[in-house]
Amino acid sequence: MIMSEKLDIDKSVLSENDKTAYKISEELKENKILAVNVMGSPGSGKTTFIEKISDFFNPEEIFVIQGDLESDVDKKRMEKKGIDAYQINTHGGCHLNADMIKNSLENIDLKSKNFLFIENVGNLVCPAGIRIGQHLNVVVSSTTEGSDKPKKYPVIFLNSDLVLISKYDLSDVVDFNENKYLKDIRNIKNSVKILKISKNDKKSIKECAEFINKKRRNLFNDAE
To answer: For residue range 1-11, what is the model confidence (pLDDT) as tens digits?
Structure first.
């Protein structure tokens, strides 16, 4: 009976979260803002990815929400790039939720932005199925983490729209098994877009920027 009550409470909490997430998504659509949920392990390169991809956009059209247990280290990195950023510290919580995003958005002028990048709390489990108003889910998965991550954490890859194999320049150094990695992802979600990136490879980052920009144009039916 106690277990049943707990399940009912969990469903209720998720339901309320989903309602808030839907409202966020619609509000962002009204303002023609594409919300990108960036997920991945600590140290996978999430912050670096956002820093590097911002070079292909106007910093003034980007807003970043940083999610961490503690500190504002990553927020300061964004501000050094001239990007508006807001820090959320969960103080132990392993993922962001829709209410957190809703409160964060009260701190910006939505009409001046085209892209919202949300860097979720670093792990491959908790953020996987939580809606926070995003239009696009990006998973940053580094070669240094090993090639077994899709096999071990399938849900986050199943929910992804774009998988970035980061630190690709270190593949040989860490003996990354690319064939196994790609095969495991395709078995989970064959349609997902997969790109290989390295922080000093501008061409690979540009390809990511083009993919995300195209998603925004498609969402809002904007011309080239």
So the answer is: 454 444 444 55
